[in-house]
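Researcher: Please translate sequence to structure tokens.
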Amino acid sequence: MPYSQFFSGGQAFHAVYGQLATPTGSRGCVNLSYRHAQKLWDVLRKGDRVYIWGKRPGS
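Model: Translation complete:
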């Protein structure tokens, strides 16, 4: 999981290769394109608050 940044226990932001949303994709994590995960890696710091909303396409 390239550029993994964990929050709230086992969930993480991380890059995925290929399609972001797949039927068997990551559960509980926030899948990002490689480029977006790399950008987020550069700005987030330990202790930053994160807010997640929305849902996987098709769920």
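Researcher: Any highlights?
Model: Helices lie at 34-43.
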